[in-house]
Automatic annotation (TrEMBL):
Subunit: Monomer.
Residue numbers binding Mg(2+): 426, 454
Protein name as it appears in the record: Malate synthase G
Positions that bind glyoxylate: 335, 426, 451-454
Binding site for acetyl-CoA: 119, 126-127, 271, 308, 535
Active site residues per record: 335 (proton acceptor), 624 (proton donor)
Gene that encodes it: glcB
Keyword annotations: Acyltransferase, Cytoplasm, Glyoxylate bypass, Magnesium, Metal-binding, Oxidation, Transferase, Tricarboxylic acid cycle
Length: 716
């Protein structure tokens, strides 16, 4: 059934959406409803056709690249000829002269601090609030409740594990904020005077090795917290001898609290399933609530109703009696959708309009509520709006985004470059032209990052006709990937991002394997990156340890001036030059089919855009559209080059559908795919693989959106 629409300035706007803008978004912004929609109509007039032309340019370049690979398919790889071809067709653009970004006022969480970053679906209010409140995390809880200290206890409270946690935390304190003599494990009491922190060991006072590490003291109920600082991150020693944990410690130390998630991306894109006006209203309403500061979510936990809301700021008393306010929440960023998809929330002449334009207008309008605050907690003290713009292909698209947000600022009455843009280096044409992309956004850029999953999906799709790609392990070890990661950091440093913007790295996708994360993810700050993505508040607390181990600013100084890896390695596809063993092919076929189905069935049938999904071995993995994209592109590539056949794909999908049904048997909202294999979810999985070569850039959105809309229609 068609939804009611309202005619506004030549646009057909979903009536509920128009009411949402009028009644919730605009009051308090000084933007009238007429100005908003008149400005949006002008935005569509000025940018919709260009948006379409940029997508057509993507497709034309891909056609040319496909034809080149087909023409050279039986010849040894000729990197020089390939690069010359990419120059000729305009895929590669000239490098800009040396420059330094000039992005104006930027919050310290972005410009000068280094620490973890969360990414959560803003459509889920509880997740959104948990991420915002993950600025501070209990190290005791993170160690006790994860596998870092061994298998997580399943019974009652484990005192031996408690003691091991306390000892591990003391080791951290000795490394990050050491005493002049002795160990934090031996402290009998903590106190403070006008000279700083005083620890008592064997009845003798001992001060910190770095007296400047002491920030001050604060109280919260029966807790007294001594606040320290190391590598720009705060650490709280929480004292409460009456607490069960504090009572077991001679010093009364009941917890060590770390400043953890400095920033959190509230995602409107890969981790959400928003296909119509009610979905988009839900997404925008939660972002609006975060920007107003009044978002709450109530839920049942153990038979008790709990209400989650944004944490307050922390007030610390310094040794001289003055006070310091510390942010109680992560700095919130919002990820818009990319340039590809259209939406029927707003139509013009009966035709859907670009969804990315709607995201730009509405998410920035919502953020005005934060910009207009004169008292109480604020998101951005610098007066900025941080928008992450994903899936852009090259500098022309980056320049388009810059002009788009200039128009949005003008319509909404904001100063130029109030909106800061995060450039996700996840598409091959952006990676190959990264300096030019940064240059296009130099007055509003606030971050660049890398991400293996989407970047690999585009790597496969771009070179789909070059041949069969190596399996996943081979892809991770291929030279292009290291060149990609290293170029990102070196180009960012050369453009002056140090002290002005984030350089980020990708997600840890195993939310329950945090011992493995703790061993592996230190490589991100060691690479010179100031942030990296984590899947949960607990992971953020543990990843924060890495930023105490590595002085990222010093590491960036060491890396600055080093040569940027050349393009040749980046542009060499990771093709399987030798036959891939059949058992590996079949294993990866089943693994990819199961992963696609496990994710897609929740997306299509339940509208869940991101969740922990058990893999083929029942290991929980964090899945979103990026993980789905890489799996679909792998199977499409191997199908294209005859490593697997269509019958094998169909068989694997059916067998893995039965497995996914079994894995979800305990979910009362789950609709089994077997034995009919005819529902929208199963058909979406088939679409992603069997039409993977023709999906634009290998993206999953067109197939998923269509099948989700079908499922919603069937459900009434």
């Amino acid at each position: 059934m068609a939804r009611p629409v309202t005619q506004i300035h030549g646009l057909q706007v979903d009536s509920d959406f128009a009411a949402f803008i009028r009644a919730q978004v605009l009051p308090g912004t000084d933007v009238t409803e007429d100005a908003f929609w008149q400005g949006y109509a002008a935005l569509l007039d000025g940018f919709a056709d260009e948006n379409r032309a940029l997508l057509d340019r993507r497709a034309a370049l891909q056609d040319q690249i496909d034809a080149w690979h087909k023409a050279h398919g039986n010849q040894p790889w000729d990197g020089a000829a390939y690069r010359g071809f990419l120059d000729e067709i305009g895929y590669l653009t000239p490098e800009p002269a040396p420059f330094t970004i000039d992005n104006g006022a930027i919050d310290p969480e972005i410009a000068t601090m280094a620490g973890p970053q969360l990414v959560v679906p803003v459509s889920n209010a509880r997740f959104a609030l948990n991420a915002a409140n993950a600025r501070w995390g209990s190290l005791y809880d993170a160690l006790y409740g994860s596998d870092v200290m061994g298998p997580v206890p399943s019974g009652g409270f484990d005192t031996a594990r408690r003691d091991a946690v306390v000892a591990r935390a003391a080791e951290f304190l000795d490394q990050a904020v050491p005493l002049l003599a002795g160990s934090h494990a031996a402290v009998e009491a903590y106190g403070a005077d006008d000279q700083g922190l005083v620890a008592t060991i064997a009845s003798q006072p001992v001060r910190l090795a770095d007296a400047d590490a002491f920030v001050g003291t604060r109280t919260d109920g029966d807790d007294t917290a001594f606040v320290l600082r190391h590598h720009g991150l705060h650490v709280e020693l929480v004292i409460n001898p009456a607490h069960p944990i504090g009572a077991a410690s001679a010093s009364g130390l009941r917890d060590v609290v770390l400043e953890a998630a400095l920033s959190a991306i509230q995602d409107c894109e890969d981790s959400v399933a928003a296909v119509d006006a009610p979905d988009k209203i839900g997404v925008y309403a939660n972002w609006l609530g975060l920007m107003r500061g009044d978002l709450t979510e109530s839920f049942d936990k153990g038979g008790k109703v709990m209400t989650r809301r944004l944490n307050p700021d922390l007030v610390v008393t310094r040794p001289d009696g003055s006070t310091l306010t510390l942010q109680g929440r992560a700095l919130l960023l919002v990820r818009n959708v990319g340039h590809l998809m259209t939406t029927d929330v707003v139509t013009r002449d009966g035709q859907p309009t670009p969804e990315g334009l709607l995201d730009a207008m509405v998410t920035v309008a919502c953020a005005i509520h934060d910009l207009n605050k004169t008292q109480g907690p604020r998101n951005s003290r610098a007066g900025a709006v941080y928008v992450v713009k994903p899936k852009m292909h090259g500098p022309d698209e980056a320049a388009f985004a810059d002009r788009l947000f200039t128009h949005v600022e003008q319509v909404l009455g904001l100063p130029a470059n109030t909106v800061k843009l995060g450039l996700m280096d996840e598409e091959r044409r952006t990676s190959a032209n990264l300096a030019a992309c940064i240059h296009a956004l130099r007055h509003r850029l606030f971050f660049i990052n890398t991400g293996f999953l989407d970047r690999t999906g585009d790597e496969i799709h771009t070179s789909m006709q070059a041949g069969a790609f190596l399996g996943r392990d081979g892809m991770k070890a291929a030279p292009w990937l290291k060149a990609y990661e290293d170029r990102n950091v070196q180009i960012g440093l050369a453009a002056g991002l140090k002290g002005r913007a984030q350089i980020g790295k990708g997600m840890w996708a195993k939310p329950d394997a945090l011992a493995e994360m703790l061993a592996a993810k230190i490589g991100h700050p060691q690479s010179g990156a100031t942030t990296a993505w984590v899947p949960s508040p607990t992971a953020a607390t543990l990843h924060a340890l890495h930023y105490h181990m590595v002085d990222v600013a010093a590491r960036q100084d060491e890396l600055s001036g080093q040569p940027v890896p050349g393009l040749d390695l980046l542009l060499t596809p990771a093709l399987a030059l030798d036959p891939i063993p059949q058992d590996q092919i079949l294993r990866e076929l089943d693994n990819s089919a199961q992963g696609i189905l496990g994710y897609v069935v929740r997306w299509v049938d339940q509208g869940i855009g991101c969740s922990k999904v058990p893999d083929i071995d029942d290991v929980q993995l964090m899945e979103d559209r990026a993980t789905c994209r890489i799996s679909a592109q792998y199977l499409a590539n191997w199908l294209e080059h005859g490593l697997i056949g269509r019958d094998q794909v169909e068989d694997a999908l059916r067998r893995m559908a039965a497995k996914v049904d079994a894995q979800n048997a305990g979910d009362p909202a789950y609709r089994p795919m077997a034995p009919g294999f005819d529902g929208p979810a199963f058909q979406a999985a088939r679409d992603l693989v069997l039409t993977g070569t023709s999906q634009p850039s290998g993206y999953t959105e067109p197939a998923l959106h269509a099948r989700r809309a079908e499922a919603k229609a069937l459900a009434g």
